[in-house]
Specification:
The chain is of the alpha+beta class and 94 residues long. It contains 3 helices and 4 strands.
C-alpha cells in the first residue's frame, strides 16, 4: 500500500479500518482505480469505474466523522458486499 493511502487510513477511526481495508481490496480487485486527494477537512478518497471512469464511491471527512457516498450501487455488485458488512457508526451517548 502506498504512503498516501496509509495516511488516509490513519485518519479513519480504528474500529472502522478493517471495513475500509476490505472494501478497498474488493474494489481494487474488481479493477477500480483509487484516487486520494488532500482536502480542507482531510482526505477525499474516490474509487472509479475501470469502464467509465465515473466514481463508484468516495470517502469524505466532515467535522462529525467520515462519510461514504455511494454513486453507482449496481456496478460490480458491491452493494451486496456492503450489505454483508456491519457499518461503523458512532452513536450518541446521553
Amino acid at each position: 500500500m502506498d504512503e498516501t493511502f496509509m495516511l488516509f487510513l490513519n485518519d479513519i477511526p480504528f474500529e472502522c479500518q478493517e471495513f475500509v481495508l476490505e472494501l478497498d481490496k474488493y474494489l481494487t480487485e474488481k479493477g477500480s482505480k483509487r484516487t486520494i486527494k488532500s482536502a480542507k477537512s482531510g482526505f477525499v478518497t474516490s474509487y472509479g469505474s475501470p469502464k467509465s471512469g465515473k466514481a463508484l464511491l468516495n470517502y469524505v471527512f466532515r467535522r462529525n466523522g467520515v462519510k461514504i457516498r455511494v454513486y453507482a450501487g449496481q456496478e460490480y455488485g458491491f452493494l451486496s458486499f456492503l450489505g454483508r458488512k456491519k457499518f461503523c457508526r458512532r452513536q450518541k451517548i446521553s
